[in-house]
Design goal:
Length: 1267
């Protein structure tokens, strides 16, 4: 008898390296008390069934190896025993053993699960098979359905070691692809090929012709004969014939047998034929089964056919099929005539999606044989034993591998296929079958092919590759060339077909880490599990359980030594208390509950920002628009304000706000709008990187990023920002918009238009502004259409990439469109662009082709730079004959994986208290559109429920009442309510003062960046450059006592009349910037001879050179006659982006936008002035520190007012500064010229001293450190 217990234990010992962690993530309801025994209806009498004999063994294995997911035994006769028992029901409903129809679901799942695993283990040798499916007119609908099910089951039984061909047969053969490959050549049964053939079978229709069986077998033999020419050593081959078997004439059987005799003789009788007659019980059977039985046995004498070769044939099988159930025990045994031996060693599968729970899984299996004591060499195969593992568990050390120099790890197979790579989604987030892809597609460095060959041929080793070289200036002022290299270290995992690789980047600078940061001087640590440790001030922040006026710490899986263990085990009150105790322990005596070493210091460092967040929360004018603030570190630590319960699967480093900030280090990064899971509607995230601190305070893109800070803001805020900063944006014919560096709109009237599609994600400029999109593609150096290959779903992604280093502004280049003019420019220091479009007529000739049904490109055969098309995707075509991707698409870079989506945290242990909302935004008290626009949870209700009829009296209400501005519209949160227009008396509400667009964006960012200095509070002073760990060990001392701080200077009041400044970033706040504890003298220089050890060990947001000297944001001047345009003063270099004067008529291709007279918006500020702004102060002692300074001083003698609006045009009111008033003591003295639009600042183009090129309409944000 087969020693199953011995096989199991031996098997587990071999694979101990892959089985380590405990978990309970089965994805459906289970019972560990018993196993599930599945027996096929056609089980032979006396078939071996271990039954309950192995249940105790499996339970014991689970105790030793808790990470095992499923354990099972599958016999050759179809017996399937699996532990733990489960119903495998969809949706995880129903209980095991219930009498509901779940047993049918269980049987269907088991009929398809482990099919590939079974074949790889029982028949690991390569198989060469031609599958022919009959779809002639003799088949009924039932028979067509059965024939397709049988054919697809056969296709799915093969692996990439096998070669197959598939064709349909009626009067003529039909192939999956009409080319020289699939109609002549057998191809490797890769996952893509199997999927392709499966779709082909699904698409076969019943033909209006009889089936020509003779021609079907002739074509099948042609495939095999072509294969023999290239692989003459093939032992056996097969033809699997799925048909009703109805004959067109009585002579056809003899014709078929003659074809078999001739062709199989050429193949030396190496071809085995299996036939599968599909039976419709309602149809009479005459000679069909007899004919197909004769074919399977190749019985030539029955039809008086003389064999052409005396060598005996290998008989096949005829299996009649009348149902699509239990195909594994009927059709699935097609391999029996091959009579190959099973694998002796364990077989490890490639990752696949388990149908039982939808999780990415890896199977490990081994053949089970029966031997007799007196015949030890006779091995009788009876089945296999196997286990399934979560891929998240197997590769967790690779998935969460992190190092200071941005090194990463990946796993490949011994064939070079990529098993896990940073380009992949986390296994626990993977929901679709991954496509096996060669590692060379992800490591696209010149010379990597040699390293790949070394990895596959050597059990271990290391090699270095040159990435690129750059020229830079050395400390002595001499130019030097620096080589950037990467080193690959690899080692093959024993007893597995896998190779683990670490790719390490080498940098000159010494990597530093935070050490021994104390917690005793910080506020009480709050963990995000408010449901387990309730807080007396708890409330609901929209839809999330929150603690107002407090920040909370969230530890993602990346923060733990065993990430999968953390994700799979339930957090309890005790475990949360152990986290808090360990993190707050300054004595370092409490046992580590499983956290990585850097987590404690990151929690302490991020805690410095909490007080600044609270101060801003209580004083900022932007609180009505800010949903939450947060900061995340590479170690997976996330601190949020207000403290909020988060989903356990959340990983800040995988979110878009984090990855985009890392893509643009040192820049303010804006994300495209997306639906907030917390209930705030459509929001935009602003984020910024935090650099490792340096004494010199200068940073470059190559510097180490130690954290990313972010802030969620309502989508409406940016529309309000445009409306209040650029009054022209409110004109009916003018559309202002903001977009990111990929062309996705951040703000556009169409995003908030209640009569349109309303707010939506992934709205591109090509969707909303096809005129602009068509024209900007003709501007060289501004935008590029790019490609990237997304290998996991085999698509080629087409996207736009805008130049964030672009200086100047763009206007119409193509002159064919006279109805619209546009200006567009980059907002310095961000990844965003600002544009304005003026349409003077309703017609537009430009458009961008877009698919209305999916993202498929309309023309995948060409992509021209100047041809406009929406972002789309094309199939990543594959050469099935070679099994490789087509060379035409193979050279394109790999796409990064999509950012992970957040899930709303729902706890079964949520407090039963009747909690209220943390804040009331008083939507009903806001009586104007601009006052309502952008406020959290508020919508301006303006359209009736039909989506088109305007309300007589628009009003402001909760988004539950009118999401998107439509009363009673469906809410994406499913919480819509009906309400009538409110009629309360008007309540005077002070409007929030919002500065120019760049100032508004940077103003939001300032709220982020000021916290950075609190974050650095413990690690940097101009007279200290040591780790905190070197300070005296006195837990009663606060960290700040170790430094000699000067007293903070008094904050100046800039609100008095007659005082003004151009720092519109600070002007957006009621309170000026706080004085940083890190105040460095402006004449400070790093002492000579300071090495790496003397550098600052804190975090900062410094940016290099010009960005650091003055983070200048251009004042957003609308369209200007005479060359002003967006950005105000544009030097002559920028004129190259304008249309050249037309040669005829003496006219010019003007870029003016003339607007019709409109009354000024309610928020217009009278008395705005304009003029040339002075340059930043030039002093020998000035030293720039950062775009977000520790201390910002505003000199009243140097700064003068920012023009709120600057417009050039003869039809508008003009308010300009007198040329003689420059020496006047009253800087606000102005001239007024009456035009049709009062209240706007207009600069006349005919003034000699105020030409378009001399108007400095950019607001300098002077960020100066002073003592």
């Amino acid at each position: 008898m087969c020693d199953l217990e011995g096989v199991e234990l031996h098997f587990f010992k071999l694979l101990f390296v892959l089985i380590r962690r405990s978990h309970n993530l089965y994805g459906c309801r289970i019972s560990k008390e018993t196993s599930c025994d599945l027996l096929p209806p056609s089980l032979p009498r006396g078939a071996f069934n271990p039954g309950r004999n192995v249940t105790e063994v499996w339970a014991s294995n689970t105790e030793y190896f808790p990470s095992v997911k499923w354990q099972y035994f599958i016999s050759l006769d179809g017996v399937h025993n699996e532990y733990p028992a489960s119903s495998f029901s969809p949706g995880c409903q129903g209980a095991p053993g219930s009498s509901s129809p779940r047993a049918k679901d269980c049987a269907n799942i088991q009929d398809t699960r482990h099919r590939d695993v079974f074949m790889r283990t029982i028949q690991p040798q390569a198989k060469y098979v031609v599958i022919v499916m009959d779809h002639g007119n003799s088949l009924s609908a039932t028979q067509m359905h059965i024939a397709k099910a049988v054919t697809k089951h056969l296709i799915a039984s093969f692996s990439d070691n096998d070669k197959i061909a598939v064709m349909g047969m009626s009067s003529q053969p039909k192939y999956a692809q009409a080319d020289s490959c699939l109609n002549q050549t057998m191809v490797a049964a890769t996952y893509e090929a199997r999927q392709f053939f499966t779709k082909f079978v699904d698409g076969l229709q019943k033909a209006d012709a009889t089936t020509n069986h003779t021609q079907g077998f002739e074509k099948a033999f042609e495939f095999l004969e072509e294969l023999i020419k290239t692989s003459p050593d093939i032992d056996k081959a097969m033809i699997l014939y799925v048909s009703r078997g109805l004959l067109s004439s009585l002579t056809e059987p003899k014709q078929v047998m003659e074809v078999l005799s001739v062709h199989n003789a050429r193949m030396d009788h190496r071809v085995i034929i299996n036939t599968y007659p599909v039976i419709d019980d309602s149809k009479p059977i005459m000679y069909e089964k007899s004919f197909l039985h004769t074919v399977a046995y190749q019985n030539y004498t029955k039809h008086d056919v003389t064999p052409k070769l005396k060598k005996p044939v290998i008989r096949g099988m005829m299996v009649a099929i009348n149902s699509t159930r239990d195909l594994s025990s009927t059709v699935g045994r097609f391999y029996l005539p091959l009579n190959h031996t099973a694998a002796k060693e364990p077989v490890i599968s490639l990752p696949y999606i388990d149908e039982a729970d939808g999780a990415l899984t890896m199977s490990l299996s081994q053949a089970c044989v029966h031997t007799l004591p007196d015949q030890p060499n006779l091995r009788h195969l009876i089945g296999l034993v196997g286990v399934d593992l979560h891929m998240e568990d197997v590769v967790q050390d690779i998935t969460y591998y992190s190092h200071a120099d941005s090194s990463y790890a990946f796993i490949i197979s011994t064939k070079g296929l990529t098993i896990m790579h940073p380009s992949f989604q986390r296994p626990m987030r993977t929901t679709s079958q991954p496509m096996p892809t060669d590692i060379s597609k992800f490591e696209q460095h010149e010379g990597f092919s040699e390293i790949r060959e070394a990895m596959l041929s050597s059990p271990e080793g290391e090699m270095t590759i040159l990435l690129h070289t750059i020229n830079q200036t050395a400390l002595d002022g001499e130019a030097e060339m620096v080589e950037h290299t990467a080193q690959y270290f690899w080692k093959k995992v024993e007893s597995t077909p896998f190779i683990v690789v670490i790719k390490s980047y080498f940098e000159v600078n010494k990597q530093r880490k935070l050490r021994n940061i104390l917690m005793n001087n910080q506020p009480d640590l709050l963990y995000h599990r408010l449901d387990l440790l309730p807080n007396e001030h708890m409330c609901y922040h929209l839809k999330q359980l929150s603690a107002p006026e407090m920040s909370a710490v969230f530890l993602s899986a990346n923060s733990f030594i065993n990430p999968f263990e953390h994700l799979s085990e339930e957090e309890t009150r005790h475990t949360v208390q152990s986290y808090i105790a360990f993190l707050k322990d300054d004595t370092r005596l409490i046992k580590n509950p499983g956290l990585k070493g850097e987590v404690r210091n990151d929690v302490a460092a991020t805690g410095r920002i909490s007080e600044e967040w609270l101060r801003r929360f209580k004083s900022s004018d932007l609180n009505d628009y800010i949903i939450r603030r947060y900061v995340g570190t590479p170690s997976g630590v996330l601190r949020t304000f207000p403290g909020t319960l988060l989903d356990k699967m959340y990983d800040p480093t995988k979110r878009q706000w984090y990855t985009r900030a890392m893509e643009y280090p040192g820049h303010v990064t804006l994300s495209a709008p997306y639906l907030d899971i917390g209930g705030a509607g459509y929001i935009v995230t602003i984020s910024h990187t935090i650099y490792e601190g340096k004494p010199a305070a200068m940073h470059g893109p190559q510097d180490k990023v130690v954290a990313v800070m972010g802030m969620d803001i309502t989508l409406g805020y940016f529309h309000k920002l445009l409306a209040m900063s650029i009054h022209t944006c409110e004109h009916p014919s003018v559309r202002c918009f903001l977009m990111d560096d990929k062309g996705y709109l951040i703000a556009h009237p169409g995003l908030i238009d209640p009569t349109g599609k309303g707010p939506a994600e992934q709205r591109h400029i090509t969707h909303m502004e096809p005129l602009v999109a068509n024209d900007i593609l003709n501007h060289g150096g501004f935008v590029q259409k790019r490609l990237c290959n997304r290998y996991n779903d085999r698509t080629v992604q087409r996207y736009f990439s805008f130049n964030t280093s672009f200086v100047g502004y763009l206007t119409n280049l193509v002159h064919g469109e006279h109805c619209a003019k546009y200006h567009i420019m980059h907002i310095s220091g961000t990844n965003a662009f600002l544009g304005m479009v003026n349409h003077t007529c309703d017609t537009a000739t430009a458009f961008c082709p877009c698919s209305m049904y999916d993202r498929l490109c309309l023309n995948c055969k060409r992509m021209e730079q100047t041809e406009c098309e929406c972002p789309c995707e094309c199939p990543l075509e594959m050469d099935f004959c070679s099994g490789h991707l087509l060379d035409t698409d193979d050279d394109v870079a790999s796409c990064p994986h999509d950012p992970e989506r957040e899930k709303l945290a729902v706890s079964e242990k949520a407090p039963t208290l009747d909690l209220k909302q943390c804040a009331s935004f008083s939507c009903d008290h806001r009586k104007t559109r601009l006052d309502c626009l952008g406020v959290v949870d508020c919508q301006w209700c303006q359209v009736q429920q039909d989506g088109s009829t305007p309300l007589d009296k628009p009003y402001c209400a909760s988004q539950r009442v009118c999401f998107g501005g439509v009363v009673g519209s469906h809410s994406p949160y499913g919480d819509e309510i009906s309400a009538e227009p409110l009629v309360q008396e008007t309540v005077g509400v002070k409007s929030t003062p919002v500065g120019p667009v760049a100032g508004g964006i940077m103003g939001c960012f300032l709220m982020l960046a000021l916290g950075v200095y609190c974050y650095r509070h413990h690690v940097h002073r101009h007279n200290h450059h040591h780790y905190i760990g070197t300070l005296p060990d006195n837990p009663n001392n606060r960290i700040s006592t170790y430094y000699n701080d000067d007293d903070q200077e008094a904050v100046e009041d800039f609100g008095a009349a007659g005082q003004c400044h151009t720092n519109f970033v600070l002007a957006t706040f009621d309170n000026p910037a706080s004085v940083s504890p890190y105040r460095v003298n402006t004449w400070y220089r790093r002492p000579a001879g300071g090495g790496a050890d003397s550098s600052d060990h804190g975090y900062s947001t410094m940016t290099p050179r010009e960005d650091s000297e003055h983070a200048s944001m251009p004042c957003l001047d609308p369209f200007s006659v005479g060359g002003g345009g967006l950005g105000g003063s544009i030097n002559k270099d920028r004129d190259r982006f304008r249309p050249q004067p037309t040669p005829s008529g003496g006219g010019t291709a003007t870029t003016n936008i003339t607007v019709n007279p409109v009354p000024p918006p309610p928020s217009s500020r009278p008395g705005s002035v304009s003029g040339a702004l002075p340059p930043p102060p030039q002093t020998a002692l000035r030293r720039s520190r950062s775009p977000t300074p520790p201390q910002t001083r505003l000199s009243m003698s140097t700064y003068c007012p920012i023009p709120e609006q600057t417009v050039l045009g003869s039809s508008l009111m003009t308010t300009f500064t007198s040329p003689t008033s420059k020496s006047s003591s009253n800087p606000s003295e102005t001239y007024h010229q009456r035009h049709s639009v009062p209240g706007m600042t207009v600069l006349p183009s005919d003034q000699q001293n105020l030409t378009g090129n001399s108007i400095q309409a950019s607001a300098q944000v002077h960020l100066i450190d002073s003592h």
